[in-house]
């Protein structure tokens, strides 16, 4: 039996996670599973307006109920079945990676982190959500509190979110293919920046 491929896409708000996940799905034919879609579904069931604060509260509630239950519900809501390959977008906590790995075994999440600086993110948030949204307030909430060093500890590859989307997708498939082909762990965490590929301990020649 061939283990399913599971690619997780993580990053700070406004880093381009949704766009990259959508492109990877189009290129592979794999479904996209989004934590936000499941939370919006819950909000609809309860008659709650699905604004950011409401979704964050629901996220905390789901986390407190248990990561295994939360991740299983998110996958099943999107129609995932054991053995399916899938793109998972919106991972914000290392605990979610562990729970997903348990659910999708013998597959394992290949986690991609999109890195972007505050200036770029603030500009994208203003375009998408308006000027009244405060980045610090968003990222200080418990539902978003893992998108930083804690999540980096379980990240396989870090990509510069300023690069063109097709180039980012190409790097994901490149390094996912390397790990799959040789059935090995990539050095954590691998940085790919504008044609220069290096990890914190290892320089990788293209």
TrEMBL record:
Which PANTHER family does this chain map to? DEPHOSPHO-COA KINASE (PTHR41930:SF1), UPF0200 PROTEIN MJ1399 (PTHR41930)
Q: Which organism is it from?
A: Fimbriiglobus ruber
Domain of life, per UniProt, equals: Bacteria
The record ties this protein, via InterPro entries, to: P-loop_NTPase
By what name is this protein known?
A: Dephospho-CoA kinase
């Amino acid at each position: 039996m061939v283990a399913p491929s599971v690619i997780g896409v993580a990053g700070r708000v406004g880093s381009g996670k949704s766009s990259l996940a959508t492109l990877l799905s189009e290129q592979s034919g794999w479904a996209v599973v989004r934590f936000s879609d499941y939370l919006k579904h819950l909000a609809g069931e309860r008659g709650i307006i699905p604004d950011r604060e409401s979704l964050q509260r629901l996220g905390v509630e789901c986390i407190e109920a248990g990561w295994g239950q939360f991740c299983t519900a998110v996958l099943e809501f999107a129609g995932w079945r054991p053995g399916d390959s899938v793109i998972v977008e919106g991972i914000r906590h290392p605990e979610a990676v562990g729970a997903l790995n348990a659910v999708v075994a013998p597959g394992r999440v290949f986690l991609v982190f999109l890195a972007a600086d505050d200036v770029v993110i603030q500009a994208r948030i203003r375009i998408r959500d308006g000027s009244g949204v405060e980045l610090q307030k968003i990222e200080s909430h418990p539902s978003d509190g893992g998108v930083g060093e804690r999540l980096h500890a379980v990240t396989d590859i870090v990509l510069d979110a300023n690069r063109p989307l097709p180039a980012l997708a190409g790097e994901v498939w490149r390094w996912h293919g390397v790990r799959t082909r040789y059935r090995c762990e990539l050095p954590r965490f691998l940085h790919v920046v504008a044609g220069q590929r290096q990890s914190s301990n290892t320089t990788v020649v293209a």
